[in-house]
Amino acid sequence: MGDNDKKIEEGGSFPAKMTYQVIICCIIAAVGGLMFGYDIGISGGVTSMDTFLLEFFPHVYEKKHRVHENNYCKFDDQLLQLFTSSLYLAGIFASLAASYFSRRFGRKPTIMLASIFFLIGAILNLSARDLGMLIGGRILLGCGIGFGNQTVPLFISEIAPARYRGGLNIMFQFLITIGILTASYVNYLTSTMKNGWRYSLGGAAVPALILLIGSIFIHETPANLIERGKDDKGKEVLRKIRGVEDIELEFQEIKRATEISQKVKSPFKELFCNRENRPPLICGTLLQFFQQFTGINVVMFYAPVLFQTMGSGNDASLISTVVTNGVNAIATIFAIVFVDMFGRKFFLVEGATQMTVTQIAIGSLLGVNLKLVGPITGHTVPLTVLILICVYVSGFAWSWGPLGWLVPSEIYPLEVRSSGYYCAVAMNMICTFIIGQFFLSALCRFRFILFFFFGVMNIIMGLFAIFFLPETKGVPIEEMAERRWKKHWHWKKYFKQN
């Protein structure tokens, strides 16, 4: 047995250096996260702007300014919520199309197509004259998000060396947080402008243009090239991105996975019918379910609305949102630096614990201090809630935020990787749609109890991470079944015993 064979057998990674080609490709691809984050951050601020409400939702504007309107019900309107959630409904179907497109034509053109959809959607929103144009633009943005979220994390996981995969993949989540932070600052700048909401929504064209231009210069992933029969090109790219000549072991491992993949005529049938694919399917899908039911999008979508509900003025609520999103971005850097050192499970369990405590504390404060009518008097309670939200967001930002995307991108075998990851992305979009469409209505009916619900969900997901999720740190993607699933106390029963 050669040295390299021994190294792989004992749990090491394939020979590789951290090359500038890998870094550049990962950063450019991760701009897809910037698009996603900008849209998450922009919608909540826009829906709290009076000029936007007067233009498209005058009945909500009137309800918002009624003196005796129920604090929890000021923004309870299904059409207003559809403005936010329609994007994610479109993303469900777009992700399905992207799972086929990326496997057949490559990750690179799929990323490029994502930027084109997003660019057209941003232009349509910028020039919207009625609600139909507004929702149409959101649907096109959803297509861009669906194509981008389906492909970018897979692209990064396939192109990154195994021992650096966690930090590089979290670049996607980091740029999501930068997008959210940028959007909240843009909303603050445009909130006092005439038709400032147009500039806010139209600003989505900027990250789309960056991704469109950048995607011209990135490499296709070796795994996808080899899967499509381009072995020589795959070897060439693999040698270039690894920065070493000795790439034969990794090439052969990808080739072996490709041969298995090519025998699969129906990836979705293989995914659902083959028992051995059950563990990554369940874990990958549940990770995205839990990520959304941490309650994070309650904060990301509706933070300005939430702060206005507590009686903060429009400017104060937008400034509070900028602060919250700044914490989100800074905390994500912590995950980039340490996730390949401490591992995935450590951060998932710690983050779930931190979010549980803060959600229960926020719910308790609102339950005691926020009455049905009238603002909270004084600044102590809103400031305390802001601090708790920042602590909550930091817990999400270094755990379930980035790892909800990272882990599903690294646990599927090649033959079902696109279809498996689609299930994870689709779950994300479905849950995001549900929260975006119904949170304001749920806030109206359940009030502060909603935060206790999310607290309980965080307890459940922490237990899931402890008992059912294997550690994936440093394991080559094609070796995940042998090294992790077959050795897990629960999931090993799904595999044939040798």
UniProtKB/TrEMBL annotation:
A GO MF label: monosaccharide transmembrane transporter activity
Keywords linked to the UniProt accession: Membrane, Sugar transport, Symport, Transmembrane, Transmembrane helix, Transport
Gene3D superfamilies for the chain: MFS general substrate transporter like domains (1.20.1250.20)
Annotated GO CC locations: membrane
Membrane topology: Multi-pass membrane protein
Transmembrane regions: 20-38, 79-98, 110-128, 134-156, 168-187, 199-218, 281-305, 317-339, 346-366, 386-407, 419-440, 446-469
Subcellular location per the Swiss-Prot or TrEMBL entry: Membrane
Superkingdom of source: Eukaryota
Annotated ranges, domain Major facilitator superfamily (MFS) profile: 25-473
Family in the record: Belongs to the major facilitator superfamily. Sugar transporter (TC 2.A.1.1) family.
Official protein name in the record: Major facilitator superfamily (MFS) profile domain-containing protein
Organism: Arabis alpina (Alpine rock-cress)
